[in-house]
Amino acid sequence: MILVTGASGTIGSELLRELVRKGEPVRAAVHVRPLDADGVETCNIDYDRPETLSPALEGVDSLFLLSQQVTHEKPMVDAAREAGVRRIVYVSSFGADRDTFIVGQLHREIELRIQETGMVWTFLRPNYLMQNFITLMGHDIRNEDAFYDSIGDARVSRIDTRDVSHVAARVLTESGHDNRAYELSGPEAITHHHAAEVLSEVLGRRIRYVELDDDSFRRRLIAQGVPEDFAGFVEDVNRRNRNGETHDDVITDNVRNILGREPTTFLRFCQDYAPTFGGR
Predict the structure, then answer these.
(1) How far apart are CA 171 and CA 124, in angstroms?
(2) Which domains does the chain have, with CATH numbers?
(3) 266 with 131: CB under 8 angstroms?
(4) Average pLDDT for 95-121
(5) Which residues cross the membrane (predicted)?
(6) What are the DSSP E strand ranges found in the chain?
(7) Cα angle vertex 237, ends 234, 238, to 5°?
(8) Nearest-5° Cα angle at 93, 33 to 119
(9) In whole angstroms, what is the distance from residue 73 CA to residue 67 CA?
(10) Residue-level pLDDT at 105
(11) pLDDT, position 185
């Protein structure tokens, strides 16, 4: 049995579809959003109530661990060890083993905790997700034909969440991935100016990238309902990218090696999600 946490999210929901397609026995753990997926057993977990974790892990051989809050992952790792789970596939962050920034350090702490349990592990370290253009910028693209950021001309090798999910499905169901960490990127490192050009081509109207200073961008995020701490985190990451302090422009071949195909391009992503951006 495979337990998928974060099952109602973008990565988790696509992973469930892949596992069902492969005929794998799978259980989906959800917390806030309900889930209705054919062929999937569901359970509810609450990381603030540790007593809900053990029942979810009953009979589980492999755990796919993904949470919006890294602090939630420590009790799940400990519960998995106590439940006799054999393997964990953990979604970490790009360059977690060398990142000096707080998010990378937090993910690295979880990686080390998993390694200390003695369970078989695989770490997936995806770069920034193409789908962030939908969740963080989609409203502005639809309504203003523009998107706003403070990342400047930094290049980032963003990855499509669907590729992350498909890699996870392979790792969970095929041999050869034990105790390995995979940095996952898209096939190209692009700037926001290039992204605007691609969006314009696909949507059939001019889309502008409007560069903001750090303070204006942070305040814009907060005004849109983004929590202040997360807005500050995004501001800091953008500053580090502008200053060349990250490795977010690195392109890896792990998606191609695992899936046997090239990663999804930003052009293909825009074509697939054009209606979401108000396209044809």
Answers:
(1) 9
(2) 1-125 (3.40.50.720), 127-160+184-280 (3.90.25.10)
(3) no
(4) 83
(5) none
(6) 2-4, 26-30, 41-44, 62-65, 87-91, 120-126, 146-149, 180-184, 208-211
(7) 85
(8) 85
(9) 7
(10) 75
(11) 97
